[in-house]
Every structure is written in structure tokens, then in C-alpha cells.
């Protein structure tokens, strides 16, 4: 609908320079420039390399997104940007670009949370998020169970990993198997050819006295690494596909079991899965089976919207505009450890009485948030 907010979103929290444009719940453009190849030889993301790549990719990616969407920058109702969490230097490039564009165009600026964006992106795929929504957020930096009654203002953590994130475990095991970086997609591929029951790897934090919604993947990681090492020391070949499948099964078994339990305990009948690991084919399949058995409706965005992108930031920005949330101040800073409980960074000098987005249209850039 033409009266839904038209928002451009910028994502630079890690190694993807993402620029997305949405109108309400409709995706118009999703331009991504990745520096992943530049990090591959280091086996992980090098922050300085990522920041430099963002700087080089930023303007061309914004221009590409505007062209793809077929809209003029002057038509935008707001500019959203990932304010955190993420790599400080990388975030800074996006935040600076967003401020420059917003100020020059006279548009409101919304510094938003990367994690809430991973959840909100599903509105582009499956329409408005049910309220409340249970979200299993699994990425390279985070693994959490979150309950949200309003993605712009209320995100409650029920549990999280106490050590490695799920994606981090995929990346580390891929390194031990010499499969390269990032590890998730390649393990996913190998696992399809393997036997998930070949090795019974441990399921972390699933004992009766363990925290019901917390995760732990470091014990699993060590168990897999030891198993591989023992094979190698004995001069035996490592069955890569079987190890990949058995490791993957241990991760997704625990993730889906705890997510379904959280829905049941909280009386929530919708589960959303987001973040890069949500692209995993086995996680998607097992979550589908277990949710169906429990009478829970599962929502998982298409894989390209699960890994980092700008559309997810635009989606949350559009929701901020639609719900008249206060824009951020011009001195918005990148916050590498922005808490998951803060979906956006509202401006302190903003007067909520004048906060509608219609008003913002009529106001000059200089006193937008005043
Ligand atoms: O959300 P994301 O793109 O970036 C962060 O915010 O961290 O997630 C990246 C993580 C990486 O650890 C990557 O290995 C993992 O998501 N990943 C996958 C798959 N695709 C990406 N993990 C398992 N299976 C996949 N198909
Ligand atoms: Zn992410």
C-alpha cells in the first residue's frame, strides 16, 4: 500500500554490507556486498578488513538498492541502520553513512537492534508478526530464545548460550575439518550425504537440572574435535559427512527441543527462527516436524533473509515509523554491545508529542528530532 512507510535500511555489523528498501511489509530491494572472501584465509572475520570493505561498498550498494527498488531517495520516510550489537568499527561505517544520508535528505534516522531486525525480517515473508512471538535467534554471535509482544518495544530474553553461539560452533567444527569459512553452509552441504546417527555427540544443557532455555555448545565442540583427533591419531580417515551430520543433529536437536518447550511453557503458538543458522536445512526440517507435532505455527524466512542483510534493518525501521517510535538523535553512536532488550535507540531530545511520521515530513532536517 502506498501509504505504508518507505524505509531504507543499512546493515554493517559484521562482514556484509547490506542495504534494503521496504514499503511496510513489502520487500523492494535487498542489495548485499560481502567481504567474506577477504576473511576466508584468516578463518574468521577480521574487523579492520570488514570496516574498510564497508567503506568501499557503502555508496555503490545504496545506489544499487535505490535502483533495484525503483524509488528516489527523496521519497523515503526514514533511514534505519544497525546501531548494534556487532563489530564497533564496522557498525560505525553504517551509522555514519545513515546519518549523512538522513541529514542531507531531511529524513528521520532510526538506529535499530541487529537481533530484533533478524526477527522483524519475517514480516517481509509471512506478514505481520503475531503478538506475542517466540523467536529462536541463532547466528554467528548469538543464540537466544526471545519472547516479543511488540518487536519495536518489547523483547524479553528467556535464555541464551552460556558459551559459544550456534553459528560459531558450525564455524569452529568446519575449521577442524578443514572445510573453510564460514562453516555453516559447508557443513549443511556435507551433512546431507552423511548419517546423523553415526556418532552420538552430547546434547549440551539438556539434563533435568539444567536451565531449560539456555544453550551450551562448547562441550559439543570439544567432543567433536576430540573424536576427529582420535581418528587422525590412529591413522584412520575421518568420515567428514557423518561427522558433519552427527554434529549438526546435536545442535539442531537441542535448539528445536528448547524452542518448542519455551512455546509450550509460555502458551505461545507461533515460533519464529531467525539469524544465519536459520538458513540450515536440517534445522528448518526438524523445527517443521516438531512444531507440527506440538501444534505450533513455524515461521522461518527464506535463507537469504536469515543471513545478514539490509532488508531486515529496513523492515524494523518501517515498523518503527508505522508505530510512531521516536527517531534517534543525530549523535547516535554505534553500540557494539547494544542489549537485545532495546529494539532501537530512541532520541533523548525528541518530543514524543510531535513524533508522528507525517510531522517529520514537514520538518527540516536541522530540527527533525528537536
Ligand atoms: O546472522 P549471520 O549472517 O551473522 C551474524 O549476525 O552472526 O550469521 C552467520 C552465521 C555463521 O556462523 C554461519 O556459519 C552461519 O550463520 N550459517 C549457517 C548456515 N548459513 C550460515 N549455519 C548452519 N547452516 C547454514 N546453512
Ligand atoms: Zn546477524
TrEMBL record:
<feature type="binding site">
    <location>
        <position position="280"/>
    </location>
    <ligand>
        <name>substrate</name>
    </ligand>
</feature>
<dbReference type="GO" id="GO:0002949">
    <property type="term" value="P:tRNA threonylcarbamoyladenosine modification"/>
</dbReference>
<feature type="binding site">
    <location>
        <begin position="137"/>
        <end position="141"/>
    </location>
    <ligand>
        <name>substrate</name>
    </ligand>
</feature>
<keyword id="KW-0479">Metal-binding</keyword>
<keyword id="KW-0408">Iron</keyword>
<dbReference type="GO" id="GO:0061711">
    <property type="term" value="F:tRNA N(6)-L-threonylcarbamoyladenine synthase activity"/>
</dbReference>
<dbReference type="InterPro" id="IPR043129">
    <property type="entry name" value="ATPase_NBD"/>
</dbReference>
<feature type="compositionally biased region" description="Basic and acidic residues">
    <location>
        <begin position="351"/>
        <end position="362"/>
    </location>
</feature>
<protein>
    <recommendedName>
        <fullName>tRNA N6-adenosine threonylcarbamoyltransferase</fullName>
        <ecNumber>2.3.1.234</ecNumber>
    </recommendedName>
</protein>
<comment type="similarity">
    <text>Belongs to the KAE1 / TsaD family.</text>
</comment>
<feature type="binding site">
    <location>
        <position position="118"/>
    </location>
    <ligand>
        <name>Fe cation</name>
    </ligand>
</feature>
<keyword id="KW-0808">Transferase</keyword>
<comment type="function">
    <text>Required for the formation of a threonylcarbamoyl group on adenosine at position 37 (t(6)A37) in tRNAs that read codons beginning with adenine. Is involved in the transfer of the threonylcarbamoyl moiety of threonylcarbamoyl-AMP (TC-AMP) to the N6 group of A37, together with TsaE and TsaB. TsaD likely plays a direct catalytic role in this reaction.</text>
</comment>
<feature type="domain" description="Gcp-like">
    <location>
        <begin position="27"/>
        <end position="314"/>
    </location>
</feature>
<feature type="binding site">
    <location>
        <position position="184"/>
    </location>
    <ligand>
        <name>substrate</name>
    </ligand>
</feature>
<dbReference type="GO" id="GO:0005506">
    <property type="term" value="F:iron ion binding"/>
</dbReference>
<feature type="region of interest" description="Disordered">
    <location>
        <begin position="332"/>
        <end position="370"/>
    </location>
</feature>
<keyword id="KW-0819">tRNA processing</keyword>
<dbReference type="InterPro" id="IPR017860">
    <property type="entry name" value="Peptidase_M22_CS"/>
</dbReference>
<dbReference type="InterPro" id="IPR022450">
    <property type="entry name" value="TsaD"/>
</dbReference>
<keyword id="KW-0012">Acyltransferase</keyword>
<feature type="binding site">
    <location>
        <position position="308"/>
    </location>
    <ligand>
        <name>Fe cation</name>
    </ligand>
</feature>
<feature type="binding site">
    <location>
        <position position="114"/>
    </location>
    <ligand>
        <name>Fe cation</name>
    </ligand>
</feature>
<dbReference type="InterPro" id="IPR017861">
    <property type="entry name" value="KAE1/TsaD"/>
</dbReference>
<keyword id="KW-0963">Cytoplasm</keyword>
<dbReference type="Pfam" id="PF00814">
    <property type="entry name" value="TsaD"/>
</dbReference>
<feature type="binding site">
    <location>
        <position position="188"/>
    </location>
    <ligand>
        <name>substrate</name>
    </ligand>
</feature>
<feature type="binding site">
    <location>
        <position position="171"/>
    </location>
    <ligand>
        <name>substrate</name>
    </ligand>
</feature>
<dbReference type="InterPro" id="IPR000905">
    <property type="entry name" value="Gcp-like_dom"/>
</dbReference>
<dbReference type="GO" id="GO:0005737">
    <property type="term" value="C:cytoplasm"/>
</dbReference>
